[in-house]
Design goal:
By secondary structure, this protein is an alpha+beta fold. It comes from Selenomonas bovis.
Length: 1116
């Protein structure tokens, strides 16, 4: 059956207004007034201001949600002109007060109560529903009335059920609820839900349409009207909330990925720079180990060289010893033969010859002794640089010089011994200083402050004994440092605050324990400590000059003692840092860059015992890297000084040895008895004389000639043997001296090896061997060049160390900067990480964990949430929107099918067109959804960043809280806004379009109303559930038109009334006493309203249309 097919079958279908009752409502005062159309189309009429709209507003109050009610809407009344309070109190006029304000006049006070009641009947089902509302003021001070909602599934009346309220509303409510068909409610939602269900109204929106119908005269915009009145408000909040919930999880997962990647980007430079730092530090340490092991390495090579030389010298010694032994045997044989020859000569009477030969032998023995003495004399003289004397005078002169040389040598020996002792003392002092430096460097490397280790050890012992953490007893210098931008003043500020920085800060909670501990221990250092209050506010430096010393310091503000420290700094160190002496002289408290301090305008101090830029003496700061580097450089200088002192000791020992040799040589020369002891020339002449005489005697004896010849040969031979033996003995002595020296040098090398750690030497030896060619410029090791080679190698190592130190300083700064960049960006993760090279392993462990577990896990969770949750949820959300959009198309098609059944004009009907809107926001929203779905269908790119960017751009705006974004969200997710609507008047026969319009603009009043009635009819059909007029369906078939026909033509009025009649709707037409003849054919009942101008009360009369028409004609 067609939607607009007129129902011809009785009884009447649907719920219709049977009776409206009001008590104390507006100007209807003091009694129950009833409008009783009994389900028939009715006319509510009367003069302007008589109270018609008051009754209409009672119907609206019964049906429409309170938040949506606009009273007296047909008259375009102001929202404040009428209200629930004005109806309950019965306002009828306003009067001016003495204060010049307006005060309403009321028929009732706040002790009265009001009731409105409507009975709706459905003849088809034989059912009745009563809707009622009771209003009362809980007290005189109440601004608005309280309300009770009542729903009954039987007819009720005010007189029967609501006339005895009394003062106890709870008791009254219980009396009502004693009947199980009566239900009471405190608020509208449940009340509205229940009566809509009874009336077959599918949505609350239908009641908005009910209210709009009352005053509808034209349709300004078909699109807006269709959206507001013919289409349900889509409920997508649940799906949208689910999508945004999924997106919040996705966003958090993506933030974790981004944060992890940012951490990785910041930590990778730490790892890379750290690798270079470690390599350079390893190189530096390698060079240091090489330098430390160099003397031992050279000693080991020297031992090898000495072994070869000793082996050669030993072989030479053995050879010489063998040769001397052989020559001695040969000499003894020659001597025996000579004795035999001489014995033969003696037997031949050669006594004289024998005596001469004995004398010659004695002379030769004397000659040999003098030659040996002369050789010893010559050796000692050579030590002193003297020539061998040839005369007694020269001998005496040499003795005098030897005595002087011996005295000088003794003095030099004494000086050498003293110098040696001094340098050995210096060496021990330098070695002790180096040990202290190593200890200080080791202590600084284990922490981040610059406080000297002696103070740190004392503080650590104190903390350990008291069971405290060392950090609970900080030194002032650990909590402050010179700001980076004030580095030019660092030296001067360190000098100014040096003593205070070494002060121990003792929190109030530990003060008593610390005092007792100090009293019981000998500290061995001078220590100042302060009783410091914690949790004090930070000092305000704004009142001080920006050049004040304390303003150039950064304080570790997370320390609980930061407040005390800043207040102490502001009090004691407000010295102005002066760039000029003029400014210095003008200030009472001042400081120059050179470290001159002025206090109180009178006391001046300048302590230059240490260089102002000597970083080794600095004690403030959050990092000690630069101090450690300075101390390491000093340690390197001390190592070099040790090596220099060792070289100087070797020279002192050589000088001592030389002085001792010179002294011994001088003593030997001084001890020589006389020149004759070394004079070989006189003895040589005596020998020559004896030989000549012997030769003469032998020449006289032919018989003994042969013996004498043999004797001569033997003597010659013995002389040669003696010389050969002496020569080899001298060579052997030199060889033994060489062996002795080699042994001494070997012992020195072995001592050097013994002083050096074997493991350290084993590690350094391959490196020293590998770099020897570079260090020595291609030279090879030789014992004689050992010192030169050692110096060359040390110079090469020093150059490498300085170059490495420069590179290491650069990399240290880069590493610290990279760590600080990470710490600044991620303070929570870096809470326990110090931006210093010693903490590099912790940073790299963090990066390793991040790359191995953290980032992959974050990325997997992100991809899972993106692909499995968020995109799926968005697809579900989009599919739901598309489904709602399709439902809109289907509903418009259903309405059009019904509209086609009624003639709009002769041979023509109205059709509603539905097209996609061209609103940019909606189009962009749909394109964004399509893009997200398309991206989801593609293979994910890497970690899904492209898909996420598209999803995030859309979801972020859907979630935004600005008013603009909220308006945008309401617009784009409401699928009603995806369409624009228009009306087309079409020819019934051909379906061709006759006229197209999007609103009623440009048309006459009657045409506007005709279009409005038609669209309104379609809306009522949909919203009131009248698509099919089947007897088994529940529906509300009641509408009110208030003053709708004031400006319409009779033809338009008849069209509208006929249209509503065809819809089988009960109509309550509210109009002044106009157009009655036009309306009368469609009306069965009349409610006539009038007002007493004196009492300001309204009255209501129920009559039939026939009676009303007759009375009107009679009055004419």
């Amino acid at each position: 059956m067609d939607l607009f097919e007129e129902a011809a079958r009785p009884p009447q279908l649907g719920f219709r207004l049977a009776r409206l009752e009001v008590y104390n409502w507006g100007t209807f005062d003091g009694e129950v007034w009833s409008l009783a159309p009994e389900g028939a189309t009715s006319l509510l009429t009367g003069d302007v201001g008589s109270g018609k709209s008051t009754l209409v507003d009672a119907i609206i109050t019964l049906l429409v949600p309170p938040r949506r009610i606009t009273y007296n809407k047909a008259a375009d009344a102001s929202a404040k002109e009428r209200s629930l309070s004005s109806y309950v109190r019965g306002y009828y006029a306003h009067h001016s007060t003495a204060e010049g304000t307006s005060r309403p006049e009321a028929l009732r006070d706040k002790r009265e109560y009001s009731v409105i009641l409507g009975v709706f009947t459905d003849e088809n089902f034989g059912r009745s529903v009563t809707l009622a509302q009771v209003f009362w003021y809980k007290s005189e001070s109440a601004a608005t009335p309280s309300r009770l909602y009542v729903l009954a599934e039987k007819p009720l009346s005010i007189a029967e059920r609501f006339s005895r309220l009394g003062g106890d509303m709870r008791a009254f409510r219980k009396r009502l609820e004693a009947d199980d068909f009566i239900h009471t409610y405190d608020d509208y939602p449940l009340y509205g839900r229940d009566f809509r269900k009874l009336f077959g109204i599918r949505q609350e929106q239908a009641l908005d349409l009910f209210q709009q119908t009352i005053s509808l005269k034209k349709v300004d915009s078909l699109t807006e009207f269709v959206r507001a009145n013919m289409l349900e408000t889509p409920d997508v909040e649940g799906l949208l909330a689910g999508l945004l919930h999924q997106f919040r999880d996705l966003e958090a997962a993506h933030a974790s990925v981004v944060r992890a990647r940012e951490q990785q980007q910041l930590l990778v430079p730490v790892r890379e720079t750290g690798a270079r730092y470690r390599r350079l530090r390893s190189e530096r340490e390698t060079y240091e180990r090489m330098g430390e092991a160099l003397p031992a390495w050279l000693a080991r090579r020297d031992i090898a060289a000495l072994a070869a030389q000793a082996e050669a010298a030993e072989q030479q010694r053995q050879t010489l010893s063998g040769e001397i032994a052989a020559l001695a045997d040969e000499r003894r044989a020659a001597e025996r033969r000579l004795a035999a020859v001489r014995a033969g000569l003696a037997q031949q009477g050669g006594a004289r010859l024998a005596a001469l030969e004995g004398q010659l032998a004695a002379l030769e023995e004397k000659q040999e002794a003098r030659r040996a003495a002369a050789a010893r004399y010559e050796e000692s003289a050579a030590v002193l640089g003297l020539a061998v004397p040839e005369t007694a005078a020269a001998f005496a002169a040499n003795r005098a010089q030897a005595q002087a040389a011996a005295a000088a040598a003794e003095e030099e020996l004494e000086q050498a011994e003293e110098e040696l002792a001094d340098q050995q003392g210096n060496l021990k002092e330098v070695e002790a200083r180096l040990a202290r430096l190593d200890e200080e460097i080791a202590s600084l490397a284990a922490r981040k402050s610059s406080i000297p280790s002696a103070f740190v050890r004392l503080r650590d012992a104190l903390a350990e004994d008291l069971g405290l953490a060392a950090a609970e007893l900080p030194f002032a210098g650990e909590l402050m440092e010179v700001r980076a931008e004030e580095c030019a003043w660092e030296g001067a500020l360190e000098r100014l605050l040096h003593g205070f920085a070494l002060s121990l800060l003792v929190p109030e909670a530990h003060y008593g324990e610390v005092v007792g501990w100090m009293e019981q221990h000998r500290l061995a250092v001078r220590l100042v400590y302060y009783r410091a209050e914690d949790a004090l506010p930070l000092a305000d430096f704004s009142a001080l000059s920006e050049d004040a010393a304390c303003c150039k310091l950064a304080v570790r503000q997370e320390s609980p003692l930061a407040g005390w420290l800043t207040q102490e700094l502001a009090r004691r160190f407000r010295h102005t840092c002066c760039e000029s002496l003029r400014a210095f002289r003008a200030e009472d408290y001042a400081l120059t860059r050179a470290g001159q301090v002025k206090t109180g305008g009178r006391r001046h101090e300048k302590d230059d015992r240490r260089a102002i830029d000597d970083r080794r003496q600095y004690v403030m700061g959050f990092s000690n890297l630069r101090k450690v580097e300075a101390l390491r450089q000093e340690a390197a200088d001390q190592v070099q000084e040790c090596e220099d002192l060792k070289a100087l000791l070797r020279r002192c020992k050589a000088q001592r040895k030389k002085a001792r040799q010179c002294g011994e040589a001088g003593m030997r020369l001084s001890a020589a008895a006389a020149f004759t002891a070394i004079d070989t020339a006189n003895v040589a002449r005596d020998i020559q004389t004896a030989r000549a005489e012997i030769a003469a005697l032998r020449a006289e004896d032919d018989a003994g000639q042969k013996l004498r010849g043999e004797e001569q040969e033997l003597l010659t031979r013995l002389s040669g043997l003696r010389r050969a033996i002496e020569s080899r003995q001298r060579t052997l002595s030199r060889c033994l001296l060489v062996l002795e020296q080699l042994q001494a040098d070997r012992a020195a090398d072995q001592a050097e090896l013994a002083r050096t750690d074997a493991l350290a030497l084993a590690k350094a030896e391959p490196l020293l061997t590998a770099h020897a060619a570079d260090a020595w410029g291609g030279r090879t090791f030789a014992h004689e060049e050992r010192q030169s080679l050692q110096n060359s190698y040390q110079n090469w190592l020093g150059a490498r160390q300085r170059e490495t130190a420069r590179e290491l300083e650069t990399e240290t700064s880069r590493l610290a900067a990279a760590m600080e960049a990470f710490n600044r960006s991620f303070p929570a993760q870096a809470r326990d990480l110090l931006p210093r090279p010693e903490a590099q392993a912790e940073y790299e462990a963090l990066l390793e964990n991040l790359e191995r577990d953290g980032l992959p896990q974050y990325e997997r969770r992100f991809r899972a949430l993106l692909e499995e949750n968020t995109i799926n949820q968005m697809a579900l959300f989009y599919a739901n929107l598309k489904l709602r959009a399709q439902e809109i198309k289907e509903r418009i098609a259903s309405i059009n099918a019904s509209l086609k059944g009624i003639d709009y004009d002769a041979g023509r009907y109205i059709e509603i067109s539905c097209v996609h809107t061209h609103v940019r926001a909606v189009q962009d929203f749909r394109r964004a959804l399509d893009a997200c779905m398309a991206a989801a269908a593609d293979a994910p790119d890497g970690c899904g960043e492209q898909q996420y960017a598209q999803v995030a751009a859309l979801a972020s705006r859907l979630r935004a809280d600005t008013e603009e974004d909220k308006r945008w969200r309401r617009e784009v997710v409401d699928v009603r806004n995806w369409f624009d609507f228009a009306a087309a008047e079409c020819w019934r026969e051909t379906g061709e379009e006759y006229e197209h319009f999007t609103d009623s603009g440009g048309k006459s009043g009657g045409q506007k109303e005709k279009l409005a009635y038609t669209i309104l009819a379609a809306s009522i059909v949909y919203n009131f559930g009248l698509e099919g007029s089947h007897a088994g369906e529940q529906s509300l078939r009641f509408a009110v038109i208030d003053e709708a026909f004031l400006k319409s033509s009779d033809a338009s009025a008849r069209f509208g009334l006929k249209l509503f009649q065809q819809l089988d709707l009960q109509l309550l037409v509210v109009t002044p006493l106009l157009k009655i003849p036009t309306i009368a054919p469609f009306v069965q009942h009349v409610g006539f309203v009038w007002q007493d101008d004196v009492q300001h009360r309204s009255y209501l009369r129920n009559i039939s249309i026939e009676e009303f028409t007759a009375e009107q004609e009679g009055q004419r």
